[in-house]
Design brief:
Elements: E1 3-7, E2 13-17, H1 25-35, E3 42-48, E4 55-59, H2 63-66, H3 69-89
Antiparallel strand pairs: 1-2, 2-3, 3-4
Length: 90
């Protein structure tokens, strides 16, 4: 399973996981194709320590090696902002 942990400026540790990344074979490949976003991004779920809400990101296939901690935190913060805006509209 592809997993990384990053800590933000508020000392919140985010655990980011790519669903189904530990599976292999044709079934795993099919699942990955289905889960890819329209822009080809792979779904990654980031769950915080503490009380903040989890976020779902769409990152490149090699996010665990190619995306820096800083970039990952920026993506998390951007998604949190989108989720806040969506909650305000409801």
């Amino acid at each position: 399973m592809k997993q990384r942990e990053v800590t933000d400026e508020n000392n919140v540790t985010w655990t980011c996981v790519q669903p189904l990344s530990g599976t292999e074979g044709k079934t795993a490949q099919k699942a990955e194709e289905i889960l890819k976003s329209e822009n080809g991004g792979i779904p990654v779920v980031c769950t915080p320590s503490g009380g903040a809400q989890s976020v779902r990101l769409a990152l490149n296939e090699n996010w665990d090696e190619q995306v820096s901690d800083e970039e990952l935190l920026i993506c998390i913060q951007a998604q949190q902002g989108k989720q806040s805006q969506n909650q305000e509209r409801k």
